[in-house]
# Entry
Amino acid sequence: MELSGAAVVVTGGASGIGRAAVRQLSDAGASVAVLDRSDGADDDEDVDVAIRCDISDEAAVVEAVRQAHDALGGLTHAVLNAGVGGFGTLLDLEAAEWDRVVDTNLRGTFLCLREVARAMVESGRGGSIVAVTSISGFLADRGMAHYSVSKAAVAELVRVAARELGPFGIRVNGIAPGTTDTPMFASTAVLPGYAARVAERTALGGVGSPEAVAQAIVSVLEMPWVTGQIVAADGGVSLWSPIDPVESMAPNPPGGPQ
# Structure
């Protein structure tokens, strides 16, 4: 499949992974509508239409997707990327903070998925949707219960949506980034040695770039016989195991660099 002539909605497309996806989609010949709470996409030459939208607000999402559909002459693809992070241990986590994260990451993704799917079903031409989840959705990261639960739920939403929407020719998949150099990841700078520790435990080394994750998103958007799948675009950081015996076999473990 080719993206030339595609009409794509990207949520959270003003920065980070979403911004990189917008650039790659535009370069591939797609027309792009960005839904974002900020106005960062207003003057972006890769964006055909920028719509201010809080994705946790149902009425706002319904109207924004309608505007995107009308502006682009239909919708063929969607990247549901918008999300927020948060930190707080279970004993200290306030309900308002839980709601803030879950309302955006889960409720917002559901609302956007529902509306773009309705538009695609109405068109009768099928479509392709990719939702951005996280490897935190299948890891047990302390202090991130609300974030991890919201992302785990998005992964299950992807699978259910793939079954329900498949008969309409709509594919639904997920991309699960790991640590990626985005504004959200920048907040970890207050944690001494965190970035270096992550880089060391990543199979490919280092921290991911928004461009690399966006490339995975665009690739999955184009796969005609793939649906209901969650692809980890994390450089292999989720492969790290705390009980790996080779870590104790310093300095030259079997199979390692000599």
